[in-house]
Design goal:
The chain has 254 residues and is of the alpha/beta class. The protein has a single domain, classed as Rossmann fold (3-Layer(aba) Sandwich). 28% of the residues lie in helices and 26% in strands. It has a 9-stranded mixed sheet with strand order 9-8-7-10-6-1-4-5-11, sandwiched between helices. A hairpin with a 2-residue loop joins strand 7 and strand 8. The longest helix is centred in the N-terminal third of the chain and has 17 residues. The model has no long low-confidence stretch (mean pLDDT 92).
Length: 254
């Protein structure tokens, strides 16, 4: 079973995000990048499939800011067997359609039986890389998946719908699966193991074909302006209810 996990490097929400001087995008020189949390779930699901059915796991991503190695070393420490990065003269951001094209060209050469990716990422939330990968690779796609079980040339996937409703689908392989959550929480990778991978592991470099990527223009980006504040109402339930009723009446809503 040849499993490939397509990952994405995204800005860390743990940091204060700064807008560039032009006010047209983030200041990428001031942003720390991390592995997308949904891609971390995809890596865990790939490791679980490998443990249950055998095979190898290859993690691949686009090295947009030339700092992808640490993420790939972490993936190797979590159970991946191989790592590869697509390198080129990229200017962030590289949009979903362009990342999908770059990933598809690389993954096609790997002849995968199964491709996993996070169902979305915090810097786009459109969930389009998985479906576009499937279209470019001419494979079926199922997204918002919370479990994958492989048997022979088919996979049984559990897809989650709104309200916690789930359904099982049988998918012919090869296929692309968008992981919402792995069937168990992602495993912890000790810092010592990540450092060991950094010293010993080899990361394959895949040269991207020279293409002009033109992201959709952003006219203006700015931090939200505080327009008010929340009022915390304290007291006994009857007092709180009376205060809320008074506020509603004051606003002319009743």
């Amino acid at each position: 079973m040849n499993i490939v996990v397509a990952i994405k490097h995204v800005p860390s929400l743990a940091d204060e995000l700064e807008v560039n001087d032009e006010g047209t995008n983030l200041d990428y020189d001031m942003v720390d990048f991390v592995l997308s949390e949904w891609d971390e779930q995809a890596i865990e699901q790939a490791a679980l499939i490998k443990e249950a059915s055998g095979g190898t796991v290859t993690v691949v991503g686009v090295d947009v800011i030339e700092e992808l190695d640490n993420v790939l070393h972490t993936a190797l420490a979590k159970g991946a067997d191989k790592a590869a990065k697509i390198v080129g003269d990229f200017e962030p951001p590289v949009e979903s359609r362009d990342q999908a094209q770059l990933l598809a060209e690389a993954i096609k050469e790997m002849s995968p039986d199964l491709v996993l990716t996070g169902v979305q990422a915090i810097d786009d939330l459109n969930g389009q890389i998985g479906p576009m990968l499937a279209a470019l690779l001419d494979m079926p796609y199922v997204g918002v998946v919370v479990n994958v079980a492989v048997s022979g040339d088919t996979a049984v996937v559990t897809k989650e719908y709104a309200g916690g409703v789930t359904a099982e689908y049988e998918v012919a392989l090869p296929a692309v699966i968008g992981i919402q959550a792995a069937s168990q929480p992602p495993r912890y990778a000790p810092v010592s193991k990540i450092r060991q991978m950094a010293k010993t592991a080899e990361i394959e470099e895949i040269e991207a074909e020279e293409e002009e990527f033109e992201p959709a223009p952003i006219n203006k980006m700015a931090k939200p302006v505080a327009a008010g504040h929340a009022e915390m109402i304290e007291g006994e339930p009857e007092e709180v209810a009376a205060k809320i009723l008074g506020i509603i009446r004051e606003k002319g809503l009743l």
